[in-house]
């Protein structure tokens, strides 16, 4: 089978290095194999609804240091479903609920919650405020008080580090090479210092839990960190 076109879809905009991987895949596919590269927009929503665009060298230029993903992701939710979950917990005697909402989360049949538009910026849309909307809805529909804490990119994501950029670039190039060889059903992974091909079945075979005797856990305990269990 001769490959003429490949597609790229991202499923998590907070992951640093996605744009670096998109850039590497696009440039390698075009330069080495003369393939057409299609960017699927807004994650699985774009795949289902047919939202896509061709990616060229110009499209992926200067995106290496950018956080997020130029292709976008999809995160939809239902306000009422959130309220139902809170009510179920309340009936079981739970006196609190913690709700986590990504700034790119969208209520069903609505668009993004935009905080502001920055004129003359290459990325003028600044998302923000979805947490406040969720809290307001919960307060109206339940007897619970809702408070909002915005972690933003203090939690994760943001501008990828130099290591992230280089690693994501290596991943992107390796992924294209796998496709060219017809090695589908695999993912690229870092093993030691080398990039390896791993079967998706192996990658998704189960959780890789941190054991109590893991060196990082042992080191943390030596520094006085509590894991909430008796030693």
What does this structure look like?
By secondary structure, this protein is α/β, with parallel strands linked by helices. Among the domains are: 76-154, no CATH class; 185-231, no CATH class. 36% of the residues lie in helices and 16% in strands. It contains 8 helices and 9 strands. A 3-stranded mixed sheet has the order 1-2-3. Strands 4-5 form a two-stranded parallel ribbon. Helix 1 links the parallel strand 1 and strand 2 (36-40). The mean pLDDT is 87.
Query: What's the average pLDDT?
Result: 87
Strand order of the largest sheet: 1-2-3
**Helix/sheet category:** alpha/beta
| Topology, number of strands | 9
* Helix-strand pattern: EHEHEHEHEEEHHEEHH
Number of helical segments?
Answer: 8
Largest sheet entry? 3 strands, mixed
Radius of gyration: 21 Å
Give descriptors for this structure.
231 residues; alpha/beta; 3-stranded mixed beta sheet; two-stranded parallel sheet; 9 strands; globular
Write the layout of secondary structure elements.
Blueprint: E1 5-9, H1 18-33, E2 36-40, H2 43-49, E3 52-55, H3 57-60, E4 76-77, H4 79-91, E5 106-107, E6 114-117, E7 125-127, H5 130-141, H6 162-180, E8 186-191, E9 194-199, H7 200-203, H8 215-222
Parallel strand pairs: 1-2, 4-5
Antiparallel strand pairs: 2-3, 6-7, 8-9
């Amino acid at each position: 089978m001769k490959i003429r076109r490949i597609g790229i879809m991202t499923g998590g905009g907070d992951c640093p290095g996605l744009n670096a991987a998109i850039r590497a895949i696009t440039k390698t596919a075009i330069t080495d194999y003369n393939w057409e590269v299609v960017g699927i927009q807004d994650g699985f929503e774009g795949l289902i609804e047919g939202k896509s665009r061709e990616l060229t060298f110009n499209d992926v230029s200067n995106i290496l240091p950018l956080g997020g993903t130029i292709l976008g992701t999809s995160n939809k939710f239902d306000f009422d479903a959130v309220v139902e979950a809170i009510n179920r917990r309340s009936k079981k005697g739970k006196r609190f609920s913690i709700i986590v909402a990504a700034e790119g989360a969208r209520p069903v049949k609505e668009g993004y919650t935009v905080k502001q538009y920055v004129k003359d910026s290459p990325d003028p849309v600044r998302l923000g405020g979805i947490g406040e909307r969720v809290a307001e809805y919960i307060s109206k529909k339940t007897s619970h008080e809702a408070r909002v804490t915005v972690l933003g990119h203090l939690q994760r994501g943001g501008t990828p580090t130099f290591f992230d950029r280089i690693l994501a670039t290596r991943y992107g190039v390796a992924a294209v090479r796998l496709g060219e060889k017809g090695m589908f059903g695999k993912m690229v992974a870092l093993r030691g210092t080398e990039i390896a091909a791993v079967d998706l079945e192996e990658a998704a075979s189960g959780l890789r839990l941190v054991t109590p005797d893991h060196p990082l856990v042992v080191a943390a305990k030596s520094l006085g960190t509590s894991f909430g269990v008796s030693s």
